[in-house]
Amino acid sequence: MPLNSLTHTICALSTPPGKSALAMVRMTGADAISIAAKIIREPEELFVAQGGATIYTDVLGKSGEALDDVIVTVFRAPKSFTGEDVVEITTHGSELIATEVANLLASHGARLAEPGEFSRRAWMNGKMSLEEVEQIALRVDASSEQALHNAANVVRRKFERLRSAYDTVIEALALVNAEIDFGESDHIDATGFTAKLDETKQILQDLVEAAENKALDKGYISVALVGPPNVGKSSIFNALLRYERSIVSHIPGTTRDYVEAYMALHGRRIKVIDTAGIRSASDEIESRGIALGSEAQQDADIVLRITDPATRNVAAQPNETLVHNKCDVDNFTNGSCISALDDSIEALVTFLESTIDAFDTGSSSLAISGSEAERLRNVLAKLWSISPEEEPTLIAEQLRSASEQIGELVGLNAGEESLSYIFSKMCIGK
Ligand SMILES: Nc1nc2c(ncn2[C@@H]2O[C@H](COP(=O)(O)OP(=O)(O)OP(=O)(O)O)[C@@H](O)[C@H]2O)c(=O)[nH]1
Ligand SMILES: [Mg+2]
Cα(425)–Cα(365) distance, rounded to whole angstroms? Predict the structure, then answer.
């Protein structure tokens, strides 16, 4: 991004595209007020408006016609999200109107913003730290209640670790520099130095591993319902989803394919999978359905093996949980007994909720992205290649370069490439 671009007045649609009750176009920069004044019916009110004031007015189209009645909110620098003059124009929630307002502002000199550019201004003007910027990005991206609650912690933990990796590498560098300045031998005193180096490597290794775990986190927890034909798998599936998704009938072999659907439990996204009852299949299609069901079962996080009065004695595999269904028929009371046809299904919901709570996929992640992990792997490789036997000046050079790369990730002397990367992860208008 060219430097003058970092100060040019920018505007963007800050609400998602599509129909809604209201939509908002936001503009920031030294010319925000004068540009907004060019498109509204009461420009003089805007010029004298105090920070925080709202003006009810019309936006005028190119030929002076009223395009929409809007609320204009003014924030005066430095008391605004970005630290600059900010104007927010709230229109009726038509994408066409809001886009037209943004285009009108652009025709009067505002530039349409790049993703994350408002936040970048806020950061540049000391309104937010990089850590806060990342927290906002993660909160906006959150697809579950838990991810939303965890966002602040996840980002804080990442920054804490990066900062301590930075500190230890700087301490190691200080030891080497002391050796260069005052030492008498060609080599550095290995004990303190190696300890610091190992500490840094361990922190970075943990971060890289967290990124790898995150890559494995598929964003949902899968629950497979398995068992012989006719035990009530599809009935339980429908009861959990609270709508009729899978066909239920008294004929064994009703479900021939596997069926999956999503639901939310305790704020987590759950994929529930109904499978074809396992039996010696009578045709090719059914065998394929059964095989697919077994694959889904192998990939599932939670496997519920369903029984009915005719199949109570089956043994659960180590990773399976037995759920006895149709207990209304034989009044079975041993273990977890439900009936898909009455309220006792709630006991299964409660069981799933507590099992899901124990899944720690969200909190173990540290919001390390793939490209951040890649950078950290490079730093690690550099640190692994250092030997205390080397020339102290060479070691110092490698440590300095490692510290710069770690520092960039926490916003210390970050270069243009890092900054563009950090902010481009955000959406336009943020
Ligand atoms: N009495 C009673 N009947 C049930 C219960 N659960 C299911 N059923 C009945 O059992 C029959 C089979 O139910 P499904 O849900 O189709 O069984 P399934 O395990 O999916 O069977 P397949 O798809 O053939 O493998 C249907 O007639 C259901 O109404 C239950 O808890 N109590
Ligand atoms: Mg079925």
Answer: 18
Ligand 1: centre distance to CA 234 (Å): 7
Question: With 60 as the cut, is the pLDDT of residue 311 above it?
Answer: yes
What are the distances in angstroms from CA 121 to CA 5, 130, 136, 137?
11, 11, 14, 15
The residue whose CA is least distant from atom 9 of ligand 1 is 232
Residues 211, 372: contact at Cβ < 8 Å?
A: yes
Nearest bound ligand to the CA of residue 233: 1
User: Which amino acid is it at 342?
Assistant: D
Residue ranges of E strands in 176-219: none
pLDDT of residue 418: 60
CA of 265 to the centre of ligand 2 (A): 23
Measured from the alpha carbon of residue 232, the closest ligand is: 1
Give ligand 1 pocket residues (Cβ under 6 A).
229-235, 248-250, 252-255, 276-277, 325-326, 328-329, 339-341
- Judge whether residue 361 has pLDDT over 70: no
Write down how long the chain is.
Answer: 430
pLDDT tens-digit map of 206-255? 888 877 766 566 678 899 999 999 999 999 999 999 999 999 999 988 88
- With CA atoms as reference, report the closest residue to 359 among 220, 237, 224: 220
CA of 325, closest atom in ligand 1: 31
The CA radius of gyration of the chain, in Å to the nearest whole number, is: 30
pTM for this prediction: 0.58
Counting ligand 1 atoms within 8 A of each CB, the residue from 244, 247, 248 with the most, and so the one to mutate, is 248
Beta bridge partners of 346: none
Residue 350's Cα: distance from chain center in Å?
27
User: Hey, what domains does the chain have and what are their CATH numbers?
Assistant: 3-113 (3.30.1360.120), 140-217+366-424 (1.20.120.430), 221-362 (3.40.50.300)
Pocket test for ligand 1, best of 225, 226, 230, 246 (most atoms within 8 A of CB): 230
pLDDT tens, residue by residue, 376-400 = 999 999 999 998 888 888 998 999 9
pLDDT band at 277 (very low <50, low <70, confident <90, very high): confident
Read off the pLDDT band of 3 (50, 70, 90): very low
Q: Do 275 and 263 touch, CB atoms closer than 8 A?
A: no
Q: Which residues surround ligand 2, an ion (CB under 5 A)?
A: 233-234, 254-255
Gap from CA of 325 to ligand 1 centroid (Å): 9
What does DSSP say about strands 66-75 and 54-60: parallel, antiparallel, or unpaired? antiparallel
